[in-house]
Write the structure tokens for this entry.
Amino acid sequence: MTVNPQITALLPTYKRPEYLRRAITSVLRQTYRDLQICVFDDASGDHTENVVSELQQNDLRIKYHCQSKNLGLIANYRYAFQSINTPYFSVLSDDDFLSENFYETAIQVLDENPDIMFVVTNTIYIDENRELANHTKSDNSLKLFRDNMRFDAFHAGEIPYDWTAMVFRKEVANVYLDMDDRYDIAYDMRYILRAMARYHFAYLSIPGAFFTAHKKSISAARKNLDYAHVVVMMSRYVEIINDDKVDVYIKKRALFYMKKIMATDYYRSEVVRLLKAIIKNSCDRTDYTDSVVKRDIESLSFEGYTVTSKIFKHIYKSDLIGNIIKLVFGSYNSRNADKYRTDFTSLQNGEYRDLFKYINEISASCGEIVDIDEKQKTKLRDNVV
């Protein structure tokens, strides 16, 4: 057991015991050993407690807290942020997991650069079958963002934005505690934007974490066309503009990005994007992409575009139209899909061979959990955050 942990893995969870085991295991397998894992169960009422208990029998670095009632996703995360008592921390979703040397390499950067407040690394995206779904090319380079251009670098797509692949100093938790997340479904983006506006950070181009794309994930539930969320997006910049810890230049850039949002024709862009998704999914359908397309068709109706929603729903459900789409676009889509799969298979078997060996090893350890007795449950509850 680590007497003096230096980093905390915050792990809020709700009703995902099958993924939670893998997430916890990935932290336990870190090459950096001075750590603790704090699991915050939002009153799941399932086998979540059993998963934690079984793993805890062999490693007391795991702490467990179960909410007395369901707080909701964002409130559970806020509770987690308020608990940090180590110099460093990371945020781990229960359906994602970490690469083995993530903590060691990120903390080394922080130790060598006292003014750098957090480190960003790359995320590897996998599907439900543990196949490569997307990735950011890693070249092992290190970039330190100490000037005001860091905010623009993020918006230009030069910096990944998945907080699972980031390590923060404890002080950066104040960003979360200061922000108003009551109406923000993408609370992670509010946090990251404001942290980048306030602090210097580093981008270390290595695979740091793995994101699992599945139809029950939070990302699969978020609507692409959502005018209420446009207001939420703008409110993030309003917070930055009114933050007295943010430089004037970055405040001006926040205003610039607000204006860009206001000038964007979301309806037109989302209709085009959705049409492309329907065409692609008619040719090569998966459970995940199918759930996303259905969600976005319904969101058109919710936003008031009833006729467009009905048309798209008819297109997507019609076997005749589906067959015509396959006839017209099938060959092109098949060539693209074959190239896509070939490229990703090549990466899995080549550059990412060791990573996917690690993924399969961890995933293979995620079996079913038997019920524990009341004595074990009492011991678990006594060891809370």
The longest helix spans residues 319-349. Residues 7-220 form a domain with the Spore Coat Polysaccharide Biosynthesis Protein SpsA; Chain A fold (CATH 3.90.550.10). The chain has 16 helices and ten strands.
